[in-house]
Amino acid sequence: MRRVAFKLMVLAALTLPITVFPGCGKTGLREELVGLLREKAGSIESLAFTCQTVDGENLYLEEFHLLFPDSYRYRFFEIVNGEKVLVRYAAQSGNRVLRAGLDSTDPGASLKAELLEDVPPIRGTGIYLSLYHLVGNGDYYYSLISLLEGGSLEVVSREILDGTDTYRLRSAPGLTPQTEMWLESGSGLPVRKELLLEGGRKVTFTYRDMAANIPDPLEPFPESALELNSLFGRPSAPVGLTVRDGGCRLAEGKSTPAEAGFSPLLPQLQGFREAGSFWRNPEASNLMDSEQSLNFPEGFREFYLLLRDGHRQVEIRQVPLVEDFGYYTSGLGLLSGAYLVQQERFSGEYADVTYTVALNRQEMHLVAGGLEVTVTGDLSREEFEELARILRSSAEGHE
Questions:
Q1: Most CB contacts within 10 A, which of 19, 44, 79, 101?
Q2: DSSP type of residue 85
Q3: Is the CB of residue 178 less than 8 Å from the CB of residue 170?
Q4: Is the domain of 152 the same as that of 126?
Q5: Same domain, 74 and 128
Q6: Domain boundary residue among 241, 260, 288?
């Protein structure tokens, strides 16, 4: 089995003095932390927190309220004259995503917003569950486990940070830029992240007011310019709203092969149930400008299958394998700016299956029965490998 760590540019942060616990070696600490992460994986249904980012003289605040598996509300604030000013807002509810922001922090600034409907349910595309700091669900915990077991992250020590008992992690030697994280010892959730850019530039992420499994519901999904104006506290600001169609249409049982143009694989994963299926004509969608420039093969369609176990979710995308048409791209493989990414191929007969993991996302890619398959979601590495076996077995039954 090969594990290859990708070196991607990320941000970095200041280190503060902390007290180190004596005792346990690094191997023992890693096993201890991995055990905690496995115990917590899939246990968090909702999460609310604030992240403070310090980048030189710049200070930013982000507020999050996440309801797994597929909903969130997000606010990004700039600090202007000592006051926080909301400049960006994002919301997701299922396959609907809203993004809104101010042109500037000036009092007369206008609002621009995009409403994205029927978006494809696959993570790492920049749309579906696209928050950089998305943490807390099974995906986050299992991602950390894979990075630790693959050697891209190391447990340095058990430390007290600002009065909190934490595990201190850092990126493996030789990986650039340097990454350090402090995880709260009881929950495995982040307390601080410190990342270093070229030239000595440092940025610090500090996580505050972390609250898991809170009973509070998400605020309503904004549906109008009036609601957006209210969110930003600017009742009279002009709003430019663009609506984009992601093109996903609910699959209707036996008619799916006719709609998609092929017979999709319908794998059954232990503990999970089917939670929805969709077909999509990307050529007819105006969701992403990059798709408009592609010359799709005639009749090209995508099929998406959702599997759920409580608030854990798995997203499976299937398309016909077309030679010389490189439509498949790894969302994780193309990440730039903020992620530590590790990639491997499974062993034995699954050596052509690619498994990619970042700090908060996982992705598997394989070919089965003439279909190109991409899988993302809240699974352990072992469950991804098992799903690869199930997909291949399902494909053999189709032949």
A1: 44
A2: E
A3: yes
A4: yes
A5: yes
A6: 241
> Radius of gyration (Cα) for the chain, nearest Å?
22
Please indicate, yes or no, if residue 22 is contained in any of the structural domains: yes
Q: Please name the residue that has the structure tokens 């600034």.
A: 109
pLDDT at position 255 is 76
Question: What is the number of alpha carbons within 13 Å of residue 113 lying toward its C-beta?
Answer: 25
Query: Does 201 map to a domain?
Result: yes
**Amino acid residing at 177:** P
Q: Is residue 4 part of a domain?
A: no
Q: Are residues 157 and 267 in the same domain?
A: no
Give yes or no: residues 203 and 254 share one domain. Answer: no
pLDDT of residue 91: 97
Q: Among 390, 379, 342, which Cα is nearest to 4's?
A: 342
- If asked whether residues 303 and 363 sit together in one domain, one would say yes
- Judged by DSSP in three states, 386 sits in helix
| Predicted local distance difference test score (pLDDT) of residue 336 | 37
Give pLDDT, residue 305. Answer: 97
Longest distance between any two alpha carbons in the chain, whole Å: 66
Other Cβ atoms less than 10 A from the Cβ of 369: the count is 19
What domain range includes position 267? Answer: 247-398
d(CA 387, CA 367): 13
pLDDT of residue 352: 93
The DSSP-derived string for 146-205 is HHHHHTSEEEEEEEEETTEEEEEEEEPTT-SS-EEEEEETTT--EEEEEEE-GGG-EEEE
Q: What is the pTM of this model?
A: 0.88
C-alpha 339/C-alpha 353 separation (Å) is 22
Q: What pLDDT, on a 0 to 100 scale, did the predictor assign at position 238?
A: 87
